[in-house]
């Protein structure tokens, strides 16, 4: 019986550590499985072309991706002739693609990639299922894949109404195919596309050898990609979708790891404190500090290994179930599937082991210093709640977190959010480490009015003599409340700032905006009275400087650069610059103006952009007259349009927010429940003494409930303070970027909600072991 009781007690001590590590490993294994499964893939439309040629790269863009220029028509002719010198290459087929959408349908996200030349259907192995290939402009072969809306109810000889960058068009269906999209004649596709950046090769013989020979023939005219390397041809729009999903997965891994360290550290610290007498006996029996440390490391490593072997398969099994929802939410491209990734499972188990050992390190070091005389002590009072190492680490975390917040306004926009999260994690760590310093004064302040009552006195003295226990309970609450305040407040603050920024960009009272389409056609724009911008991408060269820049076309605008673009190029007003436009054409223009308020890094006459980027779409028209009806467009007030833009991003941000808060709350539930279950179970002699002194079961429950609520209050107060302080840094960074005042949003309702949840968990966790003690029930 005694042995079984010891085993049961030891299991209860490690149960929370086991569950926390298992959950952390499951989160990491599932997230990394999804992340590795989401690596770029060769486009499906190139499945029958094992060797592809990509246009030359000219540096990298703003996202760190290769900047690919288009081939000119003359270059395409030369490249095709060059490749045909190798008899193993049976065909070299360019793949121009363009925007086309069935009129009246919603863009599923692929409309800008759905138009192709009929010859490129061979690259995907697509065949005619009825009718004939298109023979002239205005004829089209329509894809009829199951579930596709493109070819719904179409038959050869009929007509379909579509939207293109030109405007509404009526096409004659010459045939249907078993592939997705719309296929027109080669000449028509080339005239509609914004250049050609890929060419597929149909080859005979060894593909690797053919690819090597083709690269030798082409030299610097293109990059040959074979097999999996064709993933580099994945469209940028699809890659950006994968990037969004990747950010959520990375955030989950980071937060999961951080929370696991917190839970393991607090649990191990409490376990070591409760085993002080046991460790003292070991020391009295001759155990060295090193042996005590190794014992604790071995115990934690064993628990972590078992938890990892439980959590990794669980995470890997859940990952495929999350693939569908992530695709539906626009975080992964259509057709995404989670596949088995051994590296994810193995790495998650290893990470769980490392995190567990990191969490137990401080507790093991402290436990190894327990003096042998501790075995003779029976007092419940703690010796020292704050050690020199705890002071040093706590103050260092405060300094580093504050320094990050101060530096945020001067950081690059892309790293400000990461810096804010890092600062918050450092400050939360500091709050947990320094919590014992403020627990005493807070407890005295809160319990002052009830000091005269018996329950108040017991709660007050029990809490003050168990500061470390209270700190261990408060730590996970601190993390949850702090992260909730920071994340929800940051989203609300940025939402308001985004609304201010978007509204400032739209001086007009009414705008014409896309409706179910990725942009406005030229016909929709020309039907209105107002101004608009036609976005494109250009390669700019001046002297030895070459850079890719976002550009916009504006009616009657002079060639203009922003000061930043002018600095990158070393250009100024009056400088001649060379432009390589979307279709690959190179032209020379003179910079007429350098303007800090320019609509884009490079501003060009709209006619020039339209002529060389026939597939470009307009984002919005600032109306100066009454709106006129146009396909794929609708009129909105400027305010409504700005709110819709913010809301589109806000929905995605809200998803990120609630996933991360839910993950944090899950860890808190484990940590609070485990810590209080352990602490309450270990106080059995104390509760027996209360019963012998005349306290009933109700009195004991009131004491434990009050202590649990007090610990929750301390954690929520510290967490709210850290979250609010971190928010001030975020607001300062946003204000500095926009140059306007932004209100600080403190999410009181969210903070109160998670605090109430933590309080409920704490009360339940303390009541369960009390009610299970039969000697208390008598």
TrEMBL record:
It comes from the Bacteria. It is found in: Cell membrane. One of its GO terms (molecular function) is transmembrane transporter activity. It is a multi-pass membrane protein. One of its GO terms (cellular component) is plasma membrane. Residues 251-372, 659-773 form the ABC3 transporter permease C-terminal domain. The chain crosses the membrane at residues 12-36, 248-273, 301-323, 343-364, 391-411, 423-443, 470-492, 655-679, 700-728, 748-771. Keywords: Cell membrane, Membrane, Transmembrane, Transmembrane helix. Its main location: membrane. The keyword Cell inner membrane does not apply. Belongs to the ABC-4 integral membrane protein family. This is ABC transporter permease.
